[in-house]
UniProtKB/TrEMBL annotation:
It comes from the Archaea. This is Uncharacterized protein.
Amino acid sequence: MGIEIIKQLLWNLHAYFRHTNVFSQEYH
């Protein structure tokens, strides 16, 4: 239970940080 939700949340966070470019390119 909740595994799909957790995976979606992680993916959303990942996409959010990539779009906002909060971290430098070297960080990735």
